[in-house]
Write a structure and sequence with these properties.
By secondary structure, the protein is mainly alpha-helical. Helix content is 70%, strand content 0%.
């Protein structure tokens, strides 16, 4: 499985479209709302994971940079 954040974005917009269906009522609407909640929880974790990977990558890139400027509070 090779999904991307772009795929996630498309899934989220598709879910939004399903929720926007004015003909959806009663139990079907409740099911779609529950599905949206589940999708939102998973999407939140995916985005958090991507942010963590990005931060880790930035740290690795900065570690390799000899010209890194330390924050004032860490300077000697």
């Amino acid at each position: 499985m090779k999904n991307t954040l772009g795929d996630l974005n498309m899934h989220l917009f598709a879910q939004l479209e399903r929720l926007s269906d004015e003909e959806l009522k009663g139990e079907k609407l409740i099911e779609e709302i529950d599905r949206s909640k589940a999708v939102t929880k998973i999407a939140t974790q995916i985005v958090a994971n991507a942010a963590l990977v990005l931060e880790a990558r930035k740290l690795v890139d900065n570690r390799m940079n000899a010209d890194l400027n330390l924050p004032k509070m860490l300077e000697g």
